[in-house]
Write a structure and sequence with these properties.
Blueprint (H helix, E strand, L loop, with lengths): L2 H12 L5 H8 L3 H13 L19 E9 L4 H13 L3 E6 L6 E7 L2 H13 L4 E8 L13
Antiparallel strand pairs: 1-3, 1-4, 2-3
Helix pairs in contact: 1-2, 2-3
Amino acid sequence: MDDLDRRILRVLQKNKRLSVAELSKLVDSSAASCMRRVNKLRSTGVIVADFSLVDSKALGRSLTVVVTVELDRKRPDFVDDFKRAMRAAREVTQCYMVTGDADFVLILAVENLEVFDVFARTKLFADPNVRKFKSMITLDRVKMEPRIAV
């Protein structure tokens, strides 16, 4: 990856809705070169997805909850089952398998505490492999930056 690829990534991470002509002007390259490079960045897996970042509050999900989860048994099949369940849970917007005191960190976007309570009962308390979990209700989102510095 060279400097032009990095310039393209910086611009696309800020605004994916640009036309190829607009992108080429911003990165000082030809439209054909930009298109080729963007396609290569996608095909090689540098760009993994293009999506619109949605404000959860605008959709009525004004409560963000951070949950740490410790599993009871760490057999690969139990870990895989938990991963599958979290991928399927509509409340979970992010799920990370981590090192340290917890095995997983979850980020949830929910409507209110009652919805979180239902999630906790049906997805965490009901899972015999979950030893314990801790939840933290967020008071203020100080930073949420899905961009990667390039």
